Amino acid sequence: MEPACLGVILDSSVVIEAEHLNVAQFLKQIVQRIGEMEAALCAITVAESAHGIYRADTSERRKRRRIFLDELKAAVPVYPITDGTAELVGKIGAESSAAGITIPFDDLLIAASALERGYAVATRNLRHFRRIPGLNLISLLGPATALHRVHAANSIHTVPPFLRNLRLLAEKERAGRYPGGPARRYDRRAYLGGPFFF
User: Fold this and answer.
1) Which of 53, 67, 151, 179 has the greatest number of C-beta atoms within 10 Å?
2) Residue 92 in contact with residue 112, Cβ under 8 Å?
């Protein structure tokens, strides 16, 4: 049984994925997933979201992102990086490095902010966060999709390259060169599309 958490820090992967919603819809979805515990942001999540605002490729997208971030900051607490957070980042980072594990610095900051408060991290990025000892995670991964993304250069606009790459993955699988070995073969085929192989 997972230890109880006092709240949840929303990782930027969750915030970025939700920017097409309004904040009320987003927070309603979060409450449905995490229950009535507090949802909050870390200052690093705000920085990463602001980066996306200034990197937006259209003024419309920039405006939509700005409105979403401002409304989100008004709706949930934003926790700063304190000297305690910084010390925890140093400890976790050093221990991870000594074990040969590299964790991106921004993820260390978000994780330390959560650990410092007894919070979990709600994320779509399990790969980095699951390497941090003692951190509770709430996976907000959506269902796997194909040919559907919400940006200008997405796969729906580039179907031929998508299909070429899918074919290359299938060829690697058939030749036994796909990562994971025989033990993960069923999982890979299910993910890539079993009928494609048969």
Assistant:
1) 53
2) yes
Judge: domain 7-139, CATH 3.40.30.10: no
**Could you tell me which residues are beta bridge partners of residue 137?**
121
Model confidence at 148, pLDDT cuts 50, 70, 90, reads very low
Q: What is the pLDDT of residue 198?
A: 41
| CA-based torsion, 29, 32, 33, 34: positive or negative | positive
- Cβ count within 10 A of residue 12: 23
Answer yes or no: is pLDDT of 143 > 70: no
Is the pLDDT at 86 greater than 60, yes or no? yes
The pair of three-digit structure tokens given for residue 59, joined into one six-digit string: 């003024």
Listed in sequence order, the residues at least 6 apart from 20 whose beta carbon sits closer than 8 Å to its beta carbon are: 64, 150
Residue 16 φ/ψ, nearest 5 degrees: -65, -40
Closest CA to 93 of 112, 75, 80: 112
Quick one: which H or E segment has residue 51? helix 43-54
pLDDT of res. 84: 94
| Domain chopping of the chain, boundaries | 7-139, 159-197
Three-state DSSP class for residue 127:
helix
Copy the structure tokens of residue 157. 């606009």
d(CA 119, CA 91): 18
